[in-house]
Amino acid sequence: MSSNQLKAPFQYEKIPLENIAIDNKKKAKNMGNTLKRLWNYLTVEKGKLFLVILMVTLSSGLSLLGPFMVGMAIDDYIVTGQAGGLGMLLVGLMIVYLFHSLSIFLQNYWMIGIAQRTVYTLRKDLFKQFHRLPISYFDKRQHGELMSRLTNDIDNVNNTLNQSVIQIFASVLTLVGTIAVMLYLSPILTVVTMSVIPAMFFSMRWITKRTGPLYKLQQNDLGEVNGYVEEIVSGQHIVKTYSQEEKVIREFQERNHNLQRTGFWALTIAGFIPKIMNMLNFLSFALIALVGGILVVYDQQLVTVGVIVIFTEYARQFTRPLNELSNQFNVLLSAIAGAERVFQIMDETKEESDETNSIEVKRTKGNIKFDNVTFGYEDTTILKGIRFEARPGETVAFVGHTGAGKTTIINLISRFYDYHTGKITLDGIDLKSIKRSSLRKHMAFVLQDPFLFHGSVRENIRYGRLHATDKEVENAAVDANAHDFIMKLSNGYDTILDQDGSGISQGQKQLLTIARALLAAPSILILDEATSNIDTITELKIQAALKRLMVGRTSFVIAHRLNTIQGADTIIMLEDGKIIEQGSHEELIKLKGSYYKLYKGQVQ
Ligand SMILES: Nc1ncnc2c1ncn2[C@@H]1O[C@H](COP(=O)(O)OP(=O)(O)OP(=O)(O)O)[C@@H](O)[C@H]1O
């Protein structure tokens, strides 16, 4: 690998901002909707929110009172030379600032509570939504990218709720209050102080127009980075086996670079705000001193020295909330971008809700019938005119080249996807009218790549039936030929398995999933190439366990190795989504068609 390939992109090339297409109207509408939905989450805590608002109002009021009292001290006591009342005023000032601090402490305390609970609910709702989404949704997306929504995006919302809500509210109040008091004290100086507003407004507009889309882009780029990391971490074995480290690092760097670039521009442009605000602040300071000074010299009635001091303080108070508003506005934009991505998932079409009159199937014989079924994932039709019947207790095996449609048939039987035309029935009832959860309760899967959760061996088997007793779990393990190896593990049934069971062999994992299926005692079984990549002794064990598992259950088997399915009642040979041959092993051999050729090819 040349060192150039991995060189960090120190050059921050300009992002073509004009390419970030923004449909302003649509964007504003989306933002409004997102804010409204966030607000709905917040207002669950009406009481606390009211207290926060009360405290913010109090602290804003007190922050106006402080400078006013200082001005009074100058005009009434210092300029007049009567310093007697100064002590009392000082005590008053101390009390004002004490309550000011107390109200700030309380508003933060309550707001953090509200924010944490809001984000907790948001996280809960999003996680729930993950479970309502159809398999097709996950099939199409990178898992890490989805995870990023639950972590980074919600974190973003959390940070904003913790700080920005209070700051924005306090800033608005302080701004309005300051303007009101300034007008009361001196309309001329108010106009002078506010003369910098247009400059502030236009510079802010220029900045936020650019940072908004950039923040959104940054969140997307972060999702991409997370998605890629998740994919590569879980595919480490493959990366190493094919020595693809260089390629992977290069691809990661591309995503990392994009994130760095958007992050750089978002923060750089947002960083202009405080600088511009400071500059304008100093400008308004100078203007107040100049105009105020001239007014004092010409007419003491118009403006006093105390009022000039109050104005210089208010000028700062006046630009600070503006500054804060603009800063918080950027944080808010990034949180809205995060929230928007969260709500996007919440708005995804859920797994089509089961019809209200859909049937709960308590018992089933396990008779599955396909009658002229067609189906396609997207526009292209994958399965065409599929007809077959699996009678109760029978085994139906699917064979065919890769992409022929074997898994797709299984996806339809388990209703991960719904058929388009024709009909699939279970015991004569249309599959679409049966509640998905009720249908899947009667099914168990033993898949090619057995999945185990982080937890004990016992818990992993018990996943098949949560209320099974320890004895039942062990019986299932015995029947699945798993008991012996489990007893040899460091803690027997209580041995903790890593996520995906990386501490045990592939064959052992398969035995555990067979035990899990045995415990579930379903009437329909789905076996997907359960015996590939396994040594002969373990394979024999698995075969025996599967035989036991399949007794009395309708079983659907996908197998590439034809020797494992010779005993099947029906073998269905698929080609390009169509059934080309169907019958028992003997019948298909006699036919001397495609199955015969495939079989001969494998046994030779
Ligand atoms: N989630 C999906 N979205 C879109 N197309 C899909 C999806 N899953 C499978 N397909 C397409 O459907 C066709 C049938 O795929 P299927 O997985 O059923 O084949 P298969 O016979 O099980 O193959 P294999 O033996 O390789 O597992 C293929 O052309 C495949 O590209």
TrEMBL record:
InterPro entries: AAA+_ATPase (IPR003593), ABC1_TM_dom (IPR011527), ABC1_TM_sf (IPR036640), ABC_transporter-like_ATP-bd (IPR003439), ABC_transporter-like_CS (IPR017871), P-loop_NTPase (IPR027417), Type_1_exporter (IPR039421)
Superkingdom classification of source: Bacteria
Keyword flag Aminoacyl-tRNA synthetase: no
GO cellular component, one term: plasma membrane
Major subcellular location class: membrane
PANTHER family (UniProt xref): ATP-BINDING CASSETTE SUB-FAMILY B MEMBER 10, MITOCHONDRIAL, ATP-DEPENDENT PERMEASE MDL1, MITOCHONDRIAL
CDD domains (UniProt xref): ABC_6TM_Tm288_like, ABCC_Glucan_exporter_like
Transmembrane in keyword set: yes
Pfam families: ABC_membrane (PF00664), ABC_tran (PF00005)
Topological type in the membrane: Multi-pass membrane protein
All residue ranges annotated as the ABC transporter domain in the record: 368-601
Keywords per UniProt: ATP-binding, Cell membrane, Membrane, Nucleotide-binding, Transmembrane, Transmembrane helix, Transport
GO molecular function, one term: ABC-type oligopeptide transporter activity
Transmembrane segments: 49-74, 86-106, 165-185, 191-208, 279-298
Localisation: Cell membrane
Name the UniProt record assigns to this protein: ABC transporter ATP-binding protein
ABC transmembrane type-1 domain sequence ranges: 50-334
Provenance organism: Oceanobacillus profundus
